[in-house]
Amino acid sequence: MSLKRRIPFLRWSFWRLAIGSRNITKTGQIGDGREAAAADYVVANARRGDIDDVIAKIDDFAYDKSFLINIGDEKGELLDAAVRRAHTELALELGTYCGYGSLRIARAAPTATVFSVELSEANARVAQRIWAHAGVADRVTCVVGTIGDGGKTLDALANEHGFSAGKLDLLFIDHDKAAYLPDLQSILERGWLHPGGIVVADNMLIPGSPKYREYMREQQGKLFDTAEHKTHGEYQTLAPDLVLESEYLG
């Protein structure tokens, strides 16, 4: 891996990300059009219907064109393994962004149905273009909304998409870090996650979700059995990060 790939500070797109960080929680995007550009790049360069090539091209774009804030290639392998361990048939992702996490889930669980909740309609359009190009649009669905909207999105998942007690195998959390814990608790209140189901949470160090991490520590051996995976922030090897993998004990 080249020095430029290893060290994010050598890339202008990383600094542009820092400048546009306020936009992310409000709009879901950095603000310079990189998300739409990522979809354009995938459609122009990845083989249609080849999910492996689509994922690889997103990684290439994030390294060589513009830094992206999806889970990335290194941490993505941790997600892949969790998906397989959960024997995933129904997965829910919080935070679609460009659709990368859902692609990895769909690849690791070829028979699974995947739903992804995203606050940004623009991101939803980007993800849908990429999913269609990868050939998984028939089993990956974006629901525009937020879990913290007073029950509207949760009701839509239940009433329109069949979410019900004990049906959820895997929950992947990678959105607003302040919402990690309340959104998990809202899903637990619905009873969707069954014993043995797995919750994966990205970015425990960068930028961090301390309340979520503390909750999982408090619930260790009670409600959850959690492993903390040491890794690096997406698309670089300079800054450390943690991915939490928590098995629901019920």
Properties at a glance:
globular, 12 helices, Rossmann fold, 250 residues, alpha/beta, methyltransferase, Putative O-methyltransferase, transferase
Q: What would you say this structure looks like, in words?
A:
The protein has a 7-stranded mixed sheet, with helices on both faces. The chain has one domain (70-248): Rossmann fold (3-Layer(aba) Sandwich), CATH 3.40.50. It has 12 helices and 7 strands. The protein has 250 residues and is of the alpha/beta class. The chain has helices spanning 3-6, 12-19, 21-27, 34-45, 51-64, 72-85, 100-108, 121-134, 152-161, 180-190, 204-208, 210-218; strands at 90-94, 113-118, 140-144, 168-173, 193-201, 224-232, 240-248. α4 crosses α5 and α5 packs antiparallel against α7 (100-108). InterPro entries: SAM-dependent_MTases_sf, SAM_O-MeTrfase. This is Putative O-methyltransferase. Pfam families: Methyltransf_3 (PF01596). GO terms for molecular function: O-methyltransferase activity.
Give a quick summary of the entry:
By secondary structure, the protein is of the alpha/beta class. It has helices at 3-6, 12-19, 21-27, 34-45, 51-64, 72-85, 100-108, 121-134, 152-161, 180-190, 204-208, 210-218, and strands at 90-94, 113-118, 140-144, 168-173, 193-201, 224-232, 240-248. Helix 5 (51-64) packs antiparallel against helix 7.
Compile the SSE list and pairings:
Layout: H1 3-6, H2 12-19, H3 21-27, H4 34-45, H5 51-64, H6 72-85, E1 90-94, H7 100-108, E2 113-118, H8 121-134, E3 140-144, H9 152-161, E4 168-173, H10 180-190, E5 193-201, H11 204-208, H12 210-218, E6 224-232, E7 240-248
Parallel strand pairs: 1-2, 1-4, 2-3, 4-5
Antiparallel strand pairs: 5-7, 6-7
GO biological process, one term: methylation
GO molecular function: O-methyltransferase activity
InterPro entries: SAM-dependent_MTases_sf (IPR029063), SAM_O-MeTrfase (IPR002935)
